[in-house]
Amino acid sequence: MGDEVDFTRLKEHLEKRFSWDRNAVEISPISGGYSNLTFLLKTPEGKFALRRPPFGEVAAKAHDMVRESQILDGLLMAGYRKSPKPILLFEEDYLIGVPFLIMEFVDGLVLRNKLPQGIKILQEDFETLSKNTLDSLIELHLLELNRSGLINLGKPTGYVSRQVHGWVDRYQQAKTDKLPEMEKVALWLKANLPQKENVGFIHNDYKYDNLVLNPQNLSEIRAVLDWEMATVGDPLMDLGTSLAYWAQADDPEILKMFNLTHLPGNLSRAEVIAYYNSRTPFDLGNILFYYVFGQYKVAVIAQQIYKRFLLGYTNDPRFGALIQVVEAAGKKAENAILTEKI
């Protein structure tokens, strides 16, 4: 199955709806993501971003464009100013084969797994960016939920248990290789569920490559992207996922492919925990559990995408190496359990 999209009908629709000359509309993929697909939409009225689900088999309830649009609306109501504004939600599939969402395009620099050519970031800039990244996450976790309507986008009671059991089930459905460490970590997570849960709005995929930075000041965050997994739940589960992505210099190379936090100047994971702890009311005494969950979740996400690659739903060569991420993240989680160190 190919990865091409025919945008002819979409251009005709945009011409009718917004009076944009269909011949002046250009649509091209924006590379970098591993989940929902993002396209750059150039129009006579400026640039926009188009989001659509990935090709092929996807997990149940994932990649929901309607929900992503509701999230962006709720964030605006709550006063969060680092999320793009939604422009057009199209719930039917006859224009491009799937529902899609058009939103504000925020221009800037996104840090992938290597610094862009000609870009140098000083150690002190990375330190500031680390703290600004956490400040933006903390702001999200402490948002008002009721007046904004964000509370309606999740079910916080029992969230941690549902997440653990849900991700274990997803792994079993997507499993392709025998990895004993993944089975051991799953059992440990089920046996060590926290008794107390916190409530806040969470992103669920918060890391550098989902941030748009100001090219003139690379420690300044202009926008946070990829809200498809955001919900109301336990903020420490969100922090745990971010910690799993927060690679350090001494981590396996394969786990450095998602985040440039391993470069000099960035806070260490221990410093991230201390910074977050000093600025939130949450009890981080059991942060090991949330970190182990984060590593397991990263492994399962990689496993799901790797299976889509094996089934031929995408030919992106990056996806062929993701089984190594599954193995490395699983071993990292198992080692954290054995050593009680993050």
Topology record:
Blueprint: H1 8-18, E1 26-29, E2 37-43, E3 46-52, H2 65-77, E4 86-90, E5 100-104, H3 123-141, H4 159-174, H5 180-191, E6 200-202, E7 211-214, E8 217-224, E9 231-233, H6 235-245, H7 269-279, H8 287-310, H9 322-339
Antiparallel strand pairs: 1-2, 2-3, 3-5, 4-5, 6-9, 7-8
Helix pairs in contact: 3-7, 4-8, 5-8, 5-9, 6-8, 8-9
Pfam family, one: APH
InterPro entries: ACAD10-like, ACAD10_11_N, Aminoglycoside_PTrfase, Kinase-like_dom_sf, Ser/Thr_kinase_AS
Organism: Algoriphagus jejuensis
Question: Would you give an account of this structure?
Answer:
A five-stranded antiparallel sheet has the order 1-2-3-5-4, with helices on one face. A two-stranded antiparallel sheet has the order 6-9. A two-stranded antiparallel sheet has the order 7-8. The chain has nine helices and nine strands. It has 342 residues and is of the alpha+beta class. Helices cover 39% and strands 13% of the residues. It has two domains: 8-104, Phosphorylase Kinase, domain 1 (2-Layer Sandwich); 123-339, Aminoglycoside 3'-phosphotransferase, Chain: A, domain 2 (Alpha-Beta Complex).
